[in-house]
């Protein structure tokens, strides 16, 4: 799910899967829905 973080008096939306930051929540959600890091089960 998308996390919010405040920086420079702005709210940023962070992909919890890979850590990318977005200026708006819609972009973050769209990214995260197709994020390659969404299923980390193969990493271990
Ligand atoms: Zn991501």
Strand content: 25-35%
Report strand order across the widest sheet. Answer: 1-2-3
* C-alpha termini separation: 21 Å
Order of helices and strands: EEEH
Tell me the helix content: 10-25%
Count structural domains: 1
Report the sheet with the most strands, covering strand number, pairing sense and barrel closure.
Answer: 3 strands, antiparallel
Mean pLDDT: 88
Uncertain spans: none
Coarse morphology: elongated
Quick one: how many beta strands?
Answer: 3
Bound molecules: zinc ion
As a whole number of angstroms, the C-alpha radius of gyration is: 11 Å
Structural class: alpha+beta
Count up the helices: 1
Domain C2H2-type: 13-40
GO molecular function: DNA binding
Organism: Haloprofundus marisrubri
Keywords: DNA-binding
